Amino acid sequence: MDTLTSPHGGGQPLLHQKGAETQAFGTLKQLPIGLGHDTRMYACQRLNRVLADTQILHSLYKKHHWLMRGATFYSLHLMLDKHAEAQLAIVDALAERVQSLGGVAVGDPRHVAELTSIPRPPDGVEPVPVMLSRLLDAHERILIDARDAAARLSAEGDEGSADLLVSDVVRTGEAQVWFLAEHLVDTPLVRG
Protein backbone atom coordinates (compact mmCIF):
# COMPACT_ATOMS: atom_id res chain seq x y z
CA MET A 1 0.00 0.00 0.00
CA ASP A 2 1.48 3.38 -0.95
CA THR A 3 1.22 6.58 1.09
CA LEU A 4 -1.50 8.02 -1.15
CA THR A 5 -3.93 5.18 -0.45
CA SER A 6 -2.80 4.44 3.09
CA PRO A 7 -5.27 5.58 5.76
CA HIS A 8 -2.38 7.27 7.63
CA GLY A 9 -0.38 8.75 4.77
CA GLY A 10 -0.59 11.13 1.90
CA GLY A 11 -1.93 14.05 3.90
CA GLN A 12 -5.53 12.86 3.66
CA PRO A 13 -7.69 14.48 6.32
CA LEU A 14 -9.53 12.11 8.62
CA LEU A 15 -13.05 13.35 7.99
CA HIS A 16 -16.37 12.80 9.77
CA GLN A 17 -14.85 11.87 13.10
CA LYS A 18 -17.11 11.20 16.05
CA GLY A 19 -16.24 10.84 19.69
CA ALA A 20 -17.47 11.10 23.22
CA GLU A 21 -17.55 14.40 25.06
CA THR A 22 -14.28 14.71 26.98
CA GLN A 23 -15.49 17.27 29.54
CA ALA A 24 -19.09 18.12 30.27
CA PHE A 25 -20.27 21.69 30.61
CA GLY A 26 -20.51 22.62 34.29
CA THR A 27 -17.58 20.43 35.34
CA LEU A 28 -14.01 21.29 36.24
CA LYS A 29 -10.69 19.71 35.53
CA GLN A 30 -8.04 20.12 38.19
CA LEU A 31 -5.45 22.79 37.46
CA PRO A 32 -2.71 23.86 39.90
CA ILE A 33 -3.67 27.56 40.10
CA GLY A 34 -4.04 27.96 43.85
CA LEU A 35 -7.83 28.22 43.92
CA GLY A 36 -10.11 25.62 45.45
CA HIS A 37 -12.70 23.59 43.56
CA ASP A 38 -15.73 25.46 44.95
CA THR A 39 -14.27 28.88 44.15
CA ARG A 40 -13.39 27.83 40.61
CA MET A 41 -16.80 26.25 40.08
CA TYR A 42 -18.59 29.39 41.26
CA ALA A 43 -16.32 31.57 39.11
CA CYS A 44 -17.03 29.48 36.02
CA GLN A 45 -20.78 29.69 36.61
CA ARG A 46 -20.73 33.47 37.02
CA LEU A 47 -18.29 34.05 34.17
CA ASN A 48 -20.33 31.86 31.83
CA ARG A 49 -23.43 33.91 32.62
CA VAL A 50 -21.61 37.15 31.80
CA LEU A 51 -20.09 35.44 28.75
CA ALA A 52 -23.51 34.39 27.42
CA ASP A 53 -24.90 37.90 27.90
CA THR A 54 -21.81 39.44 26.28
CA GLN A 55 -22.15 37.16 23.26
CA ILE A 56 -25.75 38.32 22.88
CA LEU A 57 -24.67 41.96 23.30
CA HIS A 58 -22.06 41.48 20.57
CA SER A 59 -24.74 40.04 18.28
CA LEU A 60 -27.10 42.93 19.05
CA TYR A 61 -24.35 45.40 18.19
CA LYS A 62 -23.78 43.70 14.84
CA LYS A 63 -27.50 43.50 14.08
CA HIS A 64 -28.06 47.16 14.90
CA HIS A 65 -24.88 48.14 13.00
CA TRP A 66 -26.42 46.59 9.87
CA LEU A 67 -29.89 48.07 10.45
CA MET A 68 -29.05 51.72 11.21
CA ARG A 69 -31.18 54.34 9.47
CA GLY A 70 -31.47 58.10 9.17
CA ALA A 71 -29.34 61.22 9.46
CA THR A 72 -26.90 59.65 11.93
CA PHE A 73 -26.52 56.43 9.94
CA TYR A 74 -22.84 56.76 9.13
CA SER A 75 -21.58 57.72 12.59
CA LEU A 76 -23.75 55.15 14.36
CA HIS A 77 -22.90 52.45 11.82
CA LEU A 78 -19.18 52.96 12.53
CA MET A 79 -19.57 53.35 16.29
CA LEU A 80 -21.68 50.21 16.70
CA ASP A 81 -19.17 48.18 14.72
CA LYS A 82 -16.33 49.50 16.89
CA HIS A 83 -18.30 48.62 20.03
CA ALA A 84 -19.00 45.15 18.62
CA GLU A 85 -15.27 44.57 18.12
CA ALA A 86 -14.60 45.54 21.73
CA GLN A 87 -17.32 43.19 22.96
CA LEU A 88 -15.90 40.36 20.86
CA ALA A 89 -12.53 40.84 22.59
CA ILE A 90 -14.32 40.60 25.94
CA VAL A 91 -16.06 37.41 24.83
CA ASP A 92 -12.67 35.88 24.10
CA ALA A 93 -11.16 37.04 27.41
CA LEU A 94 -14.11 35.66 29.42
CA ALA A 95 -14.05 32.32 27.60
CA GLU A 96 -10.30 31.95 28.11
CA ARG A 97 -10.68 32.76 31.82
CA VAL A 98 -13.30 30.01 32.22
CA GLN A 99 -10.95 27.59 30.47
CA SER A 100 -8.00 28.66 32.62
CA LEU A 101 -10.05 27.86 35.73
CA GLY A 102 -10.60 24.33 34.42
CA GLY A 103 -14.17 24.89 33.25
CA VAL A 104 -15.90 24.79 29.90
CA ALA A 105 -16.81 28.10 28.29
CA VAL A 106 -20.27 28.45 26.78
CA GLY A 107 -19.80 28.77 23.05
CA ASP A 108 -22.67 27.29 21.07
CA PRO A 109 -25.23 29.99 20.17
CA ARG A 110 -28.12 27.70 21.12
CA HIS A 111 -26.59 27.16 24.57
CA VAL A 112 -25.89 30.89 24.90
CA ALA A 113 -29.59 31.55 24.21
CA GLU A 114 -30.52 29.25 27.09
CA LEU A 115 -28.21 31.05 29.56
CA THR A 116 -28.65 34.71 28.65
CA SER A 117 -30.71 37.17 30.67
CA ILE A 118 -31.00 39.60 27.75
CA PRO A 119 -34.45 39.59 26.13
CA ARG A 120 -34.67 38.58 22.50
CA PRO A 121 -35.33 41.49 20.14
CA PRO A 122 -37.80 41.30 17.25
CA ASP A 123 -36.38 39.72 14.12
CA GLY A 124 -37.04 42.84 12.06
CA VAL A 125 -35.96 46.48 12.17
CA GLU A 126 -36.88 48.76 15.07
CA PRO A 127 -36.61 52.56 15.19
CA VAL A 128 -33.04 53.73 15.83
CA PRO A 129 -33.74 55.09 19.35
CA VAL A 130 -35.32 51.75 20.29
CA MET A 131 -32.28 49.83 19.05
CA LEU A 132 -29.98 52.10 21.05
CA SER A 133 -32.19 51.73 24.13
CA ARG A 134 -32.08 47.95 23.70
CA LEU A 135 -28.27 48.09 23.72
CA LEU A 136 -28.32 50.27 26.85
CA ASP A 137 -30.61 47.78 28.62
CA ALA A 138 -28.32 44.88 27.70
CA HIS A 139 -25.29 46.79 28.98
CA GLU A 140 -27.02 47.60 32.26
CA ARG A 141 -27.92 43.95 32.85
CA ILE A 142 -24.32 42.91 32.20
CA LEU A 143 -22.87 45.71 34.35
CA ILE A 144 -25.06 44.83 37.33
CA ASP A 145 -24.17 41.14 37.07
CA ALA A 146 -20.46 41.80 36.44
CA ARG A 147 -20.13 44.11 39.45
CA ASP A 148 -21.89 41.61 41.72
CA ALA A 149 -19.80 38.72 40.39
CA ALA A 150 -16.55 40.72 40.77
CA ALA A 151 -17.31 41.55 44.42
CA ARG A 152 -18.21 37.96 45.28
CA LEU A 153 -15.25 36.46 43.42
CA SER A 154 -12.86 38.91 45.05
CA ALA A 155 -14.23 37.89 48.46
CA GLU A 156 -13.57 34.25 47.48
CA GLY A 157 -9.95 35.07 46.60
CA ASP A 158 -10.34 34.91 42.82
CA GLU A 159 -8.78 38.27 42.06
CA GLY A 160 -8.03 37.23 38.46
CA SER A 161 -11.69 36.81 37.57
CA ALA A 162 -12.69 39.90 39.57
CA ASP A 163 -10.06 41.98 37.76
CA LEU A 164 -11.21 40.75 34.34
CA LEU A 165 -14.81 41.64 35.16
CA VAL A 166 -13.95 45.13 36.42
CA SER A 167 -11.14 46.03 34.01
CA ASP A 168 -12.69 44.68 30.83
CA VAL A 169 -16.43 44.17 31.24
CA VAL A 170 -17.31 47.08 33.53
CA ARG A 171 -14.93 49.74 32.22
CA THR A 172 -15.64 48.99 28.56
CA GLY A 173 -19.36 48.72 29.21
CA GLU A 174 -19.53 52.04 31.07
CA ALA A 175 -17.72 53.85 28.25
CA GLN A 176 -19.97 52.29 25.62
CA VAL A 177 -23.08 53.21 27.61
CA TRP A 178 -21.92 56.82 27.69
CA PHE A 179 -21.46 56.92 23.90
CA LEU A 180 -24.83 55.27 23.26
CA ALA A 181 -26.77 57.40 25.75
CA GLU A 182 -25.44 60.64 24.24
CA HIS A 183 -27.08 59.64 20.95
CA LEU A 184 -30.46 59.65 22.69
CA VAL A 185 -30.25 63.27 23.87
CA ASP A 186 -33.01 65.23 22.11
CA THR A 187 -31.09 68.06 20.44
CA PRO A 188 -31.95 69.84 17.18
CA LEU A 189 -29.69 69.11 14.23
CA VAL A 190 -29.90 72.47 12.46
CA ARG A 191 -31.15 75.12 14.93
CA GLY A 192 -29.95 76.12 18.39
From TrEMBL:
Stored PROSITE patterns: DPS_1 (PS00818), DPS_2 (PS00819)
Domain (Ferritin/DPS) ranges: 45-189
InterPro entries xrefs: DPS_DNA-bd, DPS_DNA-bd_CS, Ferritin-like, Ferritin-like_SF, Ferritin_DPS_dom
PANTHER family for this protein: GENERAL STRESS PROTEIN 20U
Family, as annotated: Belongs to the Dps family.
Protein name: Dps family protein
Species of provenance: Streptomyces litmocidini
Organism taxonomic ancestry: Bacteria, Bacillati, Actinomycetota, Actinomycetes, Kitasatosporales
